[in-house]
């Protein structure tokens, strides 16, 4: 706060005063967000969500629980996930390119 008075001269505007008092709270908020993001990364490494999703899809498609899933159902799940994660964003990107908004605008 003393630096704010020194930087602005003798008069201290309310906006400058408020920004200097809110700076520690903003730093704490950024630290909390960074901590939560690191927790999400560690959880994703410990329990990969894509593998969990694949196993749930295969279990839902499996009719006989005593047998291993058929190769065709495994390939169907793999192809559908590739379609969702790769082809759908590319379709939106090509749509943006064709509408002359730019490839990366749609992507």
Give an overview in words.
This protein has 107 residues and is mostly helical. Helix content is 79%, strand content 0%. It contains 5 helices and no strands. It has helices at 2-8, 14-46, 49-61, 71-98, 103-106. The longest helix is centred in the N-terminal third of the chain and has 33 residues, at 14-46. The protein is elongated, with a radius of gyration of 26 Å. The two termini are 45 Å apart. The mean pLDDT is 80.
Q: What are the segments in which pLDDT stays under 50 over at least 5 consecutive residues?
A: none
What general outline do the C-alpha atoms trace?
A: elongated
Relative helix content: over 70%
Helix and strand run: HHHHH
How much is the average pLDDT? 80
Distance between the termini: 45 Å
Beta-strand proportion: under 5%
Structure class? mainly alpha
- Counted by DSSP, the helix tally is 5
- Largest pleated sheet: none
User: Radius of gyration over alpha carbons?
Assistant: 26 Å
Beta-strand segment tally: 0
Short descriptors:
mainly alpha; 79% helix; 107 residues; 5 helices; elongated
Outline the fold blueprint.
Layout: H1 2-8, H2 14-46, H3 49-61, H4 71-98, H5 103-106
Nutshell version of this structure?
The chain has 107 residues and is mainly α. 79% of the residues lie in helices and 0% in strands. The two termini are 45 Å apart.
């Amino acid at each position: 706060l003393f630096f704010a008075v020194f930087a602005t001269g003798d008069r201290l505007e309310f906006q400058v005063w408020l920004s200097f008092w809110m700076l520690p709270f903003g730093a704490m908020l950024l630290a909390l967000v960074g901590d939560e993001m690191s927790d999400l990364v560690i959880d994703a490494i410990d329990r990969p969500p894509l593998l969990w999703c694949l196993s749930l899809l295969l279990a839902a498609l499996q009719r006989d629980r005593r047998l291993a899933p058929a190769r065709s159902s495994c390939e169907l799940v793999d192809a559908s996930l590739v379609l969702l994660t790769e082809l759908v964003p590319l379709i939106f990107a090509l749509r943006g390119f064709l509408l002359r908004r730019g490839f990366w605008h749609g992507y």
